[in-house]
Amino acid sequence: MSSSKGKQFRALLKQGPVGCMGAYDAMTAMIAQQAGAKALYISGYAAAASAFGLPDLGIVSQAEMVEHIRRICQASSLPVIADGDTGYGGILNVERTIREWESAGAAGLHLEDQGFPKRCGHVAGKQVIPITEMEQKIAAALNARTDPEFFVIARTDALAVNGIEDTLERCRRYAEAGADAIFVDAPESEAQLDQIHNALSASNKPLVYNSARTGKSPFLTEKRLAELGYPIVLYPLAALLAAHHAVNVAMGQILRDGSTNSAATAMSTFQQLNDMLGMTRYVEREAAHAA
């Protein structure tokens, strides 16, 4: 029997820092795996934007998100960390989120301590729930796991709301509650990153860094982040932003010229796309059954 996705992710983490490439749909998951990614990340922002054309303001439902995760997990054999937002409500909602994310094929998730209305972590106007309420959510998440290796990350958005001291207290409490890793969203400097790491060093919990390139946090390499004590790096928007730019440019050229000729050099060929999708393999299987 093959090991669980959670166990695979934990094994990767023991080998060294893990960069989780953002996959906003099934095709980008396949591209990331073929490019050599070790793990994937499914962002709530990217899901809302790509699948629904919506901003990340908590509009996408739990049921919609889990089906999005399921499609991506089916397209790749890599372990996937998937955004779990606030758990979509209270304790019972958190329990269901854990079960659904596991069932969809995720290796783990992160739960955040935002209140409603929630916001993208790098957007103003956030609120956070009391520490004790988040501790209860973490306990519920851990107890709801059917796979004990399922990786539960506790995320705090308190830095922009309550400042660094409250953030550090939340980190310590969430680590004591049993979270597998701690994630402070939108730290603003290397000094803050170092302060967070020093406060959590006794807990021996891995720290998560969100490399979202929003301008809120410094742009650091995985090597530098590992030195600062952040072995898990998420790239939530890299593929989405690249696709947005590339499609904008290509469509502009096509509409300007009335043909695809000028945009052709910026596009993959039809054959390259079919090769990635395994078109020949599927056609051969169909032919074998027909024979």
Topology of this structure?
Layout: H1 5-15, E1 18-22, H2 26-35, E2 39-42, H3 44-52, H4 62-75, E3 80-83, H5 91-104, E4 108-112, H6 131-144, E5 151-156, H7 159-162, H8 164-176, E6 181-184, H9 190-200, E7 207-210, H10 222-228, E8 232-235, H11 238-257, H12 270-277, H13 279-290
Parallel strand pairs: 1-2, 1-8, 2-3, 3-4, 4-5, 5-6, 6-7, 7-8
Helix pairs in contact: 2-4, 4-5, 5-6, 8-9
What would your notes on this structure say?
- The chain is of the alpha/beta class.
- The protein has 2 domains: 5-243, TIM Barrel (Alpha-Beta Barrel), CATH 3.20.20; 267-291.
- The protein has helices spanning 5-15, 26-35, 44-52, 62-75, 91-104, 131-144, 159-162, 164-176, 190-200, 222-228, 238-257, 270-277, 279-290; strands at residues 18-22, 39-42, 80-83, 108-112, 151-156, 181-184, 207-210, 232-235.
- It has an 8-stranded parallel β-barrel with strand order 1-2-3-4-5-6-7-8, surrounded by 9 helices.
